[in-house]
């Protein structure tokens, strides 16, 4: 119980500064990475144009189509700080995604990895042919494989990579 509480405090401490650093139309990737970065939807669409996919989804009984990139596609180039001498060190990493309203969801790095979990977690940048605006902006998550859309976070402000080995015991 104490370990979970300590991890929660550490994650909160990591997320708050990142949340404050991002502007209204951007989100930050930080934490246990070598290359933290700030992105706008337009930058993601341009930088990863070859990987943009159309994802169909239903939300509250209405069908939509979104232009998306896999969440892993943005996390990987941030270069999570894996220790190559530690066997499967990447399996102990987590990725926290937080929205403007502070709603926070978590994925294991392995869950996102095409080599291990193959979970389809999409960062949606446009829905129904339009950029996201208002509370939805600058991006939202879609997790079509989840039974409930509980991790479909909107208004993303931060993506924080956490190394589980570095947590207080």
Describe this structure in words.
This protein has four helices and ten strands, in the order αββαββαββαββββ. It has 169 residues and is an alpha+beta fold. The longest helix has 20 residues, at 2-21. The chain starts with a helix and ends in a 6-residue tail after the last strand.
Brief summary:
This protein is an alpha+beta fold. It has four helices and ten strands.
- Report the C-alpha radius of gyration, rounded: 16 Å
Largest sheet: spatial strand order:
2-1-10-5-6
Helix and strand run: HEEHEEHEEHEEEE
Largest sheet: 5 strands, mixed
Structural class of the helices, strands and pairings? alpha+beta
In whole angstroms, how far apart are the ends? 11 Å
> What percent of residues adopt helix (DSSP H or I)?
10-25%
Mean pLDDT: 86
Give the count of helical stretches.
4
Share of β-strand residues: 25-35%
Choose one word for the global shape.
globular
Task: Let me know the number of strands.
Answer: 10
Low-confidence stretches: 1-10, 12-22
């Amino acid at each position: 119980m104490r370990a979970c509480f300590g991890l929660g405090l550490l994650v909160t401490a990591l997320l708050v500064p990142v949340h404050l650093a991002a502007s209204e139309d951007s989100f930050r990737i930080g934490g246990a990475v070598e290359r933290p970065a700030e992105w706008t939807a337009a930058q993601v669409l341009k930088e990863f144009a070859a990987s943009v996919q159309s994802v169909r989804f239903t939300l509250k009984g209405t069908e939509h189509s979104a232009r998306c990139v896999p969440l892993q596609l943005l996390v990987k180039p941030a270069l999570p700080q894996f220790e190559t001498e530690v066997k499967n060190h990447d399996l102990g990493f987590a990725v926290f995604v937080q929205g403007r309203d502070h709603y926070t969801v978590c994925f294991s790095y392995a869950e996102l990895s095409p080599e291990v979990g193959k979970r389809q977690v999409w960062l949606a940048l446009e829905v129904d042919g339009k950029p996201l605006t208002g509370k939805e902006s600058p991006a939202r998550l879609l997790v079509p494989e989840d039974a409930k859309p509980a991790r479909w976070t909107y208004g993303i402000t931060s993506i924080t990579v956490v190394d589980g080995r570095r947590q207080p015991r």
